[in-house]
Amino acid sequence: MTDGDPAQHVDISYPAFDIQVLIDSDEDGLLDAPVKAKKVTSADRLERAFSEIVEFRRAHGRNPSATTRDIAERRLGARLDGILANEDKIAALKHLDEFGLLEIPEAPESIEDLLQVDDLDLLGDDSGLLDVSDLPVRRQVYEGTEAARRKKADDFEQFEPFFKQKHAELRAGTAKLLPYAGMSHIVPGAFFVLNGVMLFIAEVGETEYKKSTVRENKRERLRCIFENGTESSMYRQSLAIRLSDEDGQVIVQSALPEILTDDEVSGYIYVLRSLSTDPQIAAIKNLHKIGFSRGPVEQRIKNAKTSPTYLMAPVEIVATYRAYNLKTSALENLLHRVFAEVRLDITQIDRHGRDYDPSEWFDVPLTVIDQAIDLIMSGDILKYECHAQKQQLVSRDQETPDSAQ
Protein backbone atom coordinates (compact mmCIF):
# COMPACT_ATOMS: atom_id res chain seq x y z
CA MET A 1 0.00 0.00 0.00
CA THR A 2 1.41 3.36 -1.08
CA ASP A 3 0.60 6.92 -0.26
CA GLY A 4 -2.54 8.06 -1.92
CA ASP A 5 -3.93 4.59 -2.37
CA PRO A 6 -7.33 3.99 -0.93
CA ALA A 7 -7.50 1.88 2.29
CA GLN A 8 -7.92 -1.77 1.79
CA HIS A 9 -10.28 -4.05 3.82
CA VAL A 10 -8.71 -7.36 4.79
CA ASP A 11 -10.81 -10.32 6.00
CA ILE A 12 -9.13 -12.73 8.45
CA SER A 13 -10.87 -16.09 8.77
CA TYR A 14 -10.51 -18.94 11.44
CA PRO A 15 -11.22 -22.52 10.82
CA ALA A 16 -14.69 -23.66 11.89
CA PHE A 17 -14.85 -24.54 15.74
CA ASP A 18 -17.44 -26.73 17.61
CA ILE A 19 -18.22 -25.26 21.10
CA GLN A 20 -19.49 -28.61 22.32
CA VAL A 21 -16.01 -30.05 21.80
CA LEU A 22 -14.65 -27.43 24.21
CA ILE A 23 -17.24 -28.21 26.87
CA ASP A 24 -16.65 -31.91 26.59
CA SER A 25 -12.93 -31.45 27.03
CA ASP A 26 -13.39 -29.53 30.40
CA GLU A 27 -12.43 -32.37 32.66
CA ASP A 28 -11.86 -30.05 35.68
CA GLY A 29 -15.30 -28.43 35.44
CA LEU A 30 -13.91 -24.97 34.89
CA LEU A 31 -16.81 -24.14 32.63
CA ASP A 32 -19.54 -25.44 35.01
CA ALA A 33 -21.96 -22.72 36.12
CA PRO A 34 -22.09 -22.40 39.96
CA VAL A 35 -25.19 -23.92 41.63
CA LYS A 36 -27.26 -21.24 43.35
CA ALA A 37 -27.76 -21.98 47.08
CA LYS A 38 -31.31 -22.79 48.13
CA LYS A 39 -32.86 -20.14 50.39
CA VAL A 40 -33.29 -21.36 54.00
CA THR A 41 -36.84 -20.74 55.21
CA SER A 42 -38.19 -20.46 58.75
CA ALA A 43 -39.77 -23.88 58.28
CA ASP A 44 -36.34 -25.33 57.49
CA ARG A 45 -34.85 -23.80 60.64
CA LEU A 46 -37.74 -25.15 62.74
CA GLU A 47 -37.30 -28.68 61.39
CA ARG A 48 -33.55 -28.53 61.93
CA ALA A 49 -34.06 -27.39 65.53
CA PHE A 50 -36.60 -30.16 66.20
CA SER A 51 -34.30 -32.74 64.63
CA GLU A 52 -31.73 -31.99 67.34
CA ILE A 53 -34.38 -32.75 69.98
CA VAL A 54 -35.25 -36.01 68.23
CA GLU A 55 -31.57 -36.99 68.15
CA PHE A 56 -31.30 -36.31 71.89
CA ARG A 57 -34.33 -38.54 72.51
CA ARG A 58 -32.80 -41.29 70.36
CA ALA A 59 -29.45 -41.08 72.17
CA HIS A 60 -30.67 -40.82 75.79
CA GLY A 61 -34.06 -42.52 75.74
CA ARG A 62 -35.79 -39.54 77.37
CA ASN A 63 -36.92 -36.02 76.61
CA PRO A 64 -34.47 -33.18 77.31
CA SER A 65 -35.10 -31.30 80.55
CA ALA A 66 -35.47 -27.53 80.72
CA THR A 67 -34.37 -27.45 84.39
CA THR A 68 -31.13 -29.44 84.30
CA ARG A 69 -27.73 -27.87 84.99
CA ASP A 70 -26.41 -29.20 81.67
CA ILE A 71 -26.53 -26.13 79.42
CA ALA A 72 -26.87 -28.04 76.14
CA GLU A 73 -29.72 -30.23 77.40
CA ARG A 74 -31.44 -27.29 79.06
CA ARG A 75 -31.39 -25.43 75.72
CA LEU A 76 -33.08 -28.37 73.98
CA GLY A 77 -35.61 -28.75 76.82
CA ALA A 78 -36.57 -25.08 76.64
CA ARG A 79 -36.86 -25.38 72.84
CA LEU A 80 -39.23 -28.36 73.19
CA ASP A 81 -41.36 -26.45 75.73
CA GLY A 82 -41.62 -23.56 73.30
CA ILE A 83 -42.71 -25.88 70.47
CA LEU A 84 -45.35 -27.56 72.66
CA ALA A 85 -46.79 -24.14 73.49
CA ASN A 86 -47.44 -23.38 69.81
CA GLU A 87 -50.09 -25.37 67.93
CA ASP A 88 -48.82 -24.21 64.53
CA LYS A 89 -45.32 -25.52 65.24
CA ILE A 90 -46.72 -28.82 66.47
CA ALA A 91 -48.69 -29.23 63.24
CA ALA A 92 -45.65 -28.36 61.09
CA LEU A 93 -43.41 -30.91 62.83
CA LYS A 94 -45.77 -33.86 63.14
CA HIS A 95 -44.13 -35.67 60.20
CA LEU A 96 -40.77 -35.67 62.05
CA ASP A 97 -42.10 -36.79 65.46
CA GLU A 98 -41.09 -40.45 65.53
CA PHE A 99 -41.08 -40.64 69.36
CA GLY A 100 -44.35 -38.87 70.14
CA LEU A 101 -42.58 -35.84 71.59
CA LEU A 102 -45.37 -33.54 70.42
CA GLU A 103 -48.25 -35.50 71.93
CA ILE A 104 -49.90 -33.55 74.77
CA PRO A 105 -51.52 -35.86 77.37
CA GLU A 106 -55.13 -35.24 78.26
CA ALA A 107 -55.74 -33.54 81.58
CA PRO A 108 -56.86 -35.97 84.33
CA GLU A 109 -60.53 -35.75 85.23
CA SER A 110 -59.99 -36.55 88.92
CA ILE A 111 -57.33 -36.89 91.62
CA GLU A 112 -57.53 -40.66 91.21
CA ASP A 113 -56.62 -40.34 87.51
CA LEU A 114 -53.71 -38.08 88.43
CA LEU A 115 -52.31 -40.54 90.96
CA GLN A 116 -52.48 -43.36 88.40
CA VAL A 117 -49.97 -41.53 86.20
CA ASP A 118 -47.22 -41.93 88.85
CA ASP A 119 -44.89 -44.02 86.65
CA LEU A 120 -41.98 -43.68 89.09
CA ASP A 121 -44.11 -44.59 92.12
CA LEU A 122 -43.27 -41.31 93.79
CA LEU A 123 -46.57 -41.40 95.63
CA GLY A 124 -46.23 -44.98 96.83
CA ASP A 125 -47.58 -45.29 100.39
CA ASP A 126 -47.09 -48.74 101.84
CA SER A 127 -47.31 -47.27 105.37
CA GLY A 128 -50.78 -45.81 104.82
CA LEU A 129 -49.75 -42.28 105.77
CA LEU A 130 -51.80 -40.85 102.91
CA ASP A 131 -54.96 -42.66 103.91
CA VAL A 132 -57.22 -40.00 105.46
CA SER A 133 -60.48 -41.90 105.16
CA ASP A 134 -60.77 -42.33 108.95
CA LEU A 135 -60.10 -38.68 109.82
CA PRO A 136 -63.05 -36.46 110.77
CA VAL A 137 -64.13 -33.79 108.34
CA ARG A 138 -63.03 -30.45 109.70
CA ARG A 139 -64.51 -27.14 108.73
CA GLN A 140 -61.90 -24.45 108.29
CA VAL A 141 -62.67 -20.89 109.30
CA TYR A 142 -60.85 -18.07 107.59
CA GLU A 143 -60.86 -14.32 108.06
CA GLY A 144 -61.04 -13.13 104.46
CA THR A 145 -58.02 -11.40 103.03
CA GLU A 146 -56.57 -10.81 106.51
CA ALA A 147 -56.73 -14.45 107.55
CA ALA A 148 -54.53 -15.13 110.58
CA ARG A 149 -52.63 -18.37 110.05
CA ARG A 150 -50.62 -20.10 112.73
CA LYS A 151 -46.86 -19.76 112.82
CA LYS A 152 -44.08 -20.92 115.11
CA ALA A 153 -43.94 -19.01 118.42
CA ASP A 154 -40.28 -18.00 118.70
CA ASP A 155 -40.54 -17.27 122.44
CA PHE A 156 -42.62 -20.34 123.31
CA GLU A 157 -40.24 -21.27 126.15
CA GLN A 158 -41.74 -18.36 128.13
CA PHE A 159 -45.23 -19.84 127.88
CA GLU A 160 -44.55 -23.59 128.07
CA PRO A 161 -44.50 -23.63 131.93
CA PHE A 162 -47.98 -22.09 131.99
CA PHE A 163 -49.41 -24.97 129.97
CA LYS A 164 -47.69 -27.54 132.19
CA GLN A 165 -49.06 -25.80 135.26
CA LYS A 166 -52.58 -25.68 133.84
CA HIS A 167 -52.49 -29.42 132.98
CA ALA A 168 -51.29 -30.13 136.53
CA GLU A 169 -54.17 -28.08 137.94
CA LEU A 170 -56.66 -29.99 135.80
CA ARG A 171 -55.26 -33.33 137.01
CA ALA A 172 -55.31 -32.17 140.62
CA GLY A 173 -58.85 -30.84 140.32
CA THR A 174 -57.92 -27.28 141.25
CA ALA A 175 -58.97 -26.24 137.73
CA LYS A 176 -61.80 -27.50 135.57
CA LEU A 177 -63.19 -27.25 132.06
CA LEU A 178 -66.46 -25.47 131.39
CA PRO A 179 -68.32 -24.92 128.11
CA TYR A 180 -67.35 -21.69 126.38
CA ALA A 181 -69.80 -19.06 127.64
CA GLY A 182 -69.16 -15.94 125.57
CA MET A 183 -66.65 -13.45 124.16
CA SER A 184 -66.38 -11.54 127.44
CA HIS A 185 -64.09 -14.32 128.72
CA ILE A 186 -61.54 -13.84 125.93
CA VAL A 187 -59.18 -11.70 127.99
CA PRO A 188 -55.42 -11.65 128.63
CA GLY A 189 -54.38 -14.63 130.73
CA ALA A 190 -57.37 -16.82 129.85
CA PHE A 191 -56.97 -20.47 128.84
CA PHE A 192 -59.22 -22.30 126.38
CA VAL A 193 -59.34 -25.69 124.68
CA LEU A 194 -60.09 -25.62 120.95
CA ASN A 195 -60.27 -28.90 119.00
CA GLY A 196 -58.35 -30.67 121.75
CA VAL A 197 -55.51 -28.10 121.85
CA MET A 198 -55.03 -25.76 124.80
CA LEU A 199 -54.46 -22.11 123.98
CA PHE A 200 -53.46 -19.11 126.06
CA ILE A 201 -54.48 -15.49 125.45
CA ALA A 202 -51.15 -13.71 125.79
CA GLU A 203 -52.26 -10.31 124.51
CA VAL A 204 -55.33 -8.40 123.34
CA GLY A 205 -54.42 -5.62 120.93
CA GLU A 206 -55.85 -2.15 120.70
CA THR A 207 -59.37 -1.79 119.37
CA GLU A 208 -59.58 -1.29 115.62
CA TYR A 209 -62.61 0.30 113.99
CA LYS A 210 -63.75 -0.94 110.59
CA LYS A 211 -66.58 0.81 108.79
CA SER A 212 -69.10 -1.18 106.79
CA THR A 213 -72.05 -0.08 104.72
CA VAL A 214 -74.30 -0.55 107.74
CA ARG A 215 -72.27 0.36 110.83
CA GLU A 216 -68.83 0.78 112.33
CA ASN A 217 -67.51 -2.46 113.83
CA LYS A 218 -64.78 -2.69 116.44
CA ARG A 219 -62.36 -5.57 116.71
CA GLU A 220 -59.16 -6.52 118.52
CA ARG A 221 -56.23 -8.64 117.40
CA LEU A 222 -55.17 -11.38 119.80
CA ARG A 223 -51.89 -13.09 120.40
CA CYS A 224 -52.96 -16.69 120.97
CA ILE A 225 -50.25 -19.12 122.07
CA PHE A 226 -51.02 -22.80 121.47
CA GLU A 227 -49.50 -25.60 123.53
CA ASN A 228 -48.02 -27.17 120.36
CA GLY A 229 -45.60 -24.24 120.07
CA THR A 230 -47.49 -22.17 117.49
CA GLU A 231 -49.23 -18.83 117.71
CA SER A 232 -51.97 -16.94 115.87
CA SER A 233 -53.02 -13.32 115.60
CA MET A 234 -56.69 -13.96 114.88
CA TYR A 235 -59.32 -11.43 115.81
CA ARG A 236 -61.13 -11.74 119.13
CA GLN A 237 -64.45 -12.14 117.31
CA SER A 238 -63.03 -14.92 115.12
CA LEU A 239 -61.84 -16.93 118.12
CA ALA A 240 -65.25 -16.44 119.73
CA ILE A 241 -66.95 -17.87 116.63
CA ARG A 242 -64.63 -20.87 116.52
CA LEU A 243 -65.03 -21.61 120.23
CA SER A 244 -68.79 -21.40 119.83
CA ASP A 245 -69.07 -23.44 116.61
CA GLU A 246 -66.53 -26.10 117.57
CA ASP A 247 -67.61 -26.76 121.18
CA GLY A 248 -64.66 -24.95 122.74
CA GLN A 249 -64.06 -24.93 126.49
CA VAL A 250 -62.72 -22.43 129.02
CA ILE A 251 -60.43 -23.44 131.90
CA VAL A 252 -61.40 -21.96 135.29
CA GLN A 253 -60.29 -22.47 138.87
CA SER A 254 -62.44 -25.01 140.69
CA ALA A 255 -62.66 -22.72 143.72
CA LEU A 256 -64.55 -20.13 141.71
CA PRO A 257 -68.31 -20.34 141.23
CA GLU A 258 -69.53 -21.14 137.74
CA ILE A 259 -68.87 -18.22 135.43
CA LEU A 260 -71.83 -16.50 133.85
CA THR A 261 -71.82 -14.93 130.41
CA ASP A 262 -72.09 -11.35 131.70
CA ASP A 263 -69.32 -11.74 134.31
CA GLU A 264 -66.24 -9.61 133.72
CA VAL A 265 -62.63 -10.32 134.65
CA SER A 266 -61.39 -7.79 137.19
CA GLY A 267 -57.75 -8.88 137.24
CA TYR A 268 -55.41 -11.57 138.50
CA ILE A 269 -53.92 -12.52 141.83
CA TYR A 270 -50.68 -14.37 141.19
CA VAL A 271 -48.25 -16.35 143.31
CA LEU A 272 -44.56 -16.42 142.38
CA ARG A 273 -41.57 -18.42 143.53
CA SER A 274 -38.13 -16.81 143.48
CA LEU A 275 -35.33 -18.47 141.48
CA SER A 276 -32.67 -16.41 143.25
CA THR A 277 -29.26 -17.98 143.89
CA ASP A 278 -28.69 -15.68 146.88
CA PRO A 279 -28.22 -18.09 149.84
CA GLN A 280 -30.26 -15.80 152.09
CA ILE A 281 -33.23 -16.06 149.70
CA ALA A 282 -32.80 -19.65 148.47
CA ALA A 283 -32.79 -20.96 152.07
CA ILE A 284 -36.43 -19.91 152.60
CA LYS A 285 -38.36 -22.98 151.44
CA ASN A 286 -41.87 -21.52 151.28
CA LEU A 287 -41.05 -18.01 150.09
CA HIS A 288 -43.80 -16.72 147.79
CA LYS A 289 -44.77 -13.38 146.33
CA ILE A 290 -48.49 -12.57 146.29
CA GLY A 291 -49.29 -9.82 143.79
CA PHE A 292 -51.95 -8.30 141.60
CA SER A 293 -52.01 -7.65 137.84
CA ARG A 294 -54.65 -6.33 135.49
CA GLY A 295 -52.91 -7.87 132.45
CA PRO A 296 -50.96 -11.04 131.63
CA VAL A 297 -48.67 -12.02 134.50
CA GLU A 298 -45.86 -13.14 132.18
CA GLN A 299 -45.61 -9.59 130.84
CA ARG A 300 -45.45 -8.25 134.38
CA ILE A 301 -42.48 -10.43 135.37
CA LYS A 302 -40.36 -10.45 132.19
CA ASN A 303 -37.81 -8.02 133.72
CA ALA A 304 -37.84 -9.58 137.18
CA LYS A 305 -34.07 -10.09 137.39
CA THR A 306 -33.47 -6.32 137.27
CA SER A 307 -36.25 -5.33 139.69
CA PRO A 308 -35.96 -5.25 143.52
CA THR A 309 -39.70 -5.96 143.61
CA TYR A 310 -38.81 -9.47 142.49
CA LEU A 311 -35.64 -9.68 144.64
CA MET A 312 -33.42 -8.92 141.63
CA ALA A 313 -33.83 -12.46 140.28
CA PRO A 314 -35.97 -14.46 137.86
CA VAL A 315 -39.25 -15.82 139.20
CA GLU A 316 -41.56 -18.74 138.46
CA ILE A 317 -45.35 -18.53 138.34
CA VAL A 318 -46.80 -21.20 140.61
CA ALA A 319 -50.46 -20.13 140.69
CA THR A 320 -52.85 -17.55 139.30
CA TYR A 321 -56.38 -16.70 140.42
CA ARG A 322 -58.70 -14.87 138.05
CA ALA A 323 -61.20 -12.66 139.85
CA TYR A 324 -64.59 -11.69 138.46
CA ASN A 325 -66.84 -8.74 139.28
CA LEU A 326 -64.81 -7.40 142.20
CA LYS A 327 -62.03 -4.96 143.04
CA THR A 328 -59.01 -7.21 142.77
CA SER A 329 -56.69 -4.74 144.49
CA ALA A 330 -58.89 -5.02 147.59
CA LEU A 331 -58.56 -8.81 147.39
CA GLU A 332 -54.78 -8.45 147.22
CA ASN A 333 -54.73 -6.15 150.24
CA LEU A 334 -56.88 -8.59 152.14
CA LEU A 335 -54.44 -11.43 151.47
CA HIS A 336 -51.52 -9.25 152.54
CA ARG A 337 -53.29 -8.53 155.82
CA VAL A 338 -54.00 -12.22 156.42
CA PHE A 339 -50.33 -13.10 155.86
CA ALA A 340 -48.87 -10.04 157.64
CA GLU A 341 -47.22 -12.20 160.31
CA VAL A 342 -45.18 -14.13 157.73
CA ARG A 343 -44.10 -11.17 155.58
CA LEU A 344 -40.44 -11.25 154.50
CA ASP A 345 -38.32 -8.61 156.24
CA ILE A 346 -35.44 -7.82 153.90
CA THR A 347 -33.86 -4.79 152.24
CA GLN A 348 -32.76 -4.91 148.61
CA ILE A 349 -30.52 -2.50 146.70
CA ASP A 350 -31.71 -1.66 143.21
CA ARG A 351 -29.45 -1.06 140.20
CA HIS A 352 -29.31 2.65 141.01
CA GLY A 353 -27.93 1.95 144.49
CA ARG A 354 -31.12 2.81 146.33
CA ASP A 355 -32.52 0.76 149.24
CA TYR A 356 -35.82 -0.99 148.61
CA ASP A 357 -37.99 -3.04 150.98
CA PRO A 358 -40.08 -5.63 149.07
CA SER A 359 -43.48 -5.87 150.74
CA GLU A 360 -45.24 -8.66 148.85
CA TRP A 361 -43.05 -11.65 149.76
CA PHE A 362 -44.30 -14.10 152.41
CA ASP A 363 -42.89 -17.23 154.03
CA VAL A 364 -46.00 -19.38 153.65
CA PRO A 365 -46.78 -22.72 151.88
CA LEU A 366 -48.76 -22.59 148.64
CA THR A 367 -51.43 -24.85 150.13
CA VAL A 368 -52.12 -22.22 152.79
CA ILE A 369 -52.48 -19.54 150.11
CA ASP A 370 -54.97 -21.78 148.27
CA GLN A 371 -56.88 -22.22 151.54
CA ALA A 372 -57.03 -18.45 151.99
CA ILE A 373 -58.47 -18.02 148.50
CA ASP A 374 -61.18 -20.59 149.31
CA LEU A 375 -62.04 -18.74 152.52
CA ILE A 376 -62.31 -15.48 150.56
CA MET A 377 -64.81 -17.13 148.21
CA SER A 378 -66.85 -18.40 151.13
CA GLY A 379 -66.65 -15.04 152.92
CA ASP A 380 -65.00 -16.49 156.05
CA ILE A 381 -61.49 -15.08 155.55
CA LEU A 382 -62.00 -12.27 158.10
CA LYS A 383 -62.09 -14.90 160.84
CA TYR A 384 -58.57 -16.13 160.11
CA GLU A 385 -54.95 -15.07 160.11
CA CYS A 386 -51.69 -16.86 159.35
CA HIS A 387 -49.68 -18.13 162.31
CA ALA A 388 -45.95 -17.55 161.78
CA GLN A 389 -44.66 -20.56 163.72
CA LYS A 390 -47.31 -23.03 162.62
CA GLN A 391 -47.34 -21.68 159.04
CA GLN A 392 -51.05 -22.27 158.79
CA LEU A 393 -54.28 -20.35 159.04
CA VAL A 394 -55.77 -20.13 162.52
CA SER A 395 -58.97 -18.59 163.78
CA ARG A 396 -58.58 -15.08 165.21
CA ASP A 397 -60.57 -16.27 168.24
CA GLN A 398 -58.15 -19.15 168.83
CA GLU A 399 -55.56 -18.54 171.56
CA THR A 400 -52.08 -18.73 170.08
CA PRO A 401 -48.84 -19.50 171.97
CA ASP A 402 -47.80 -15.84 171.67
CA SER A 403 -51.10 -14.49 173.06
CA ALA A 404 -51.06 -16.91 175.96
CA GLN A 405 -47.81 -15.50 177.34
UniProtKB/TrEMBL annotation:
Pfam families: MUG113. Residues 282-376 form the Bacteriophage T5 Orf172 DNA-binding domain. This is T5orf172 domain-containing protein. It comes from Luteococcus japonicus.
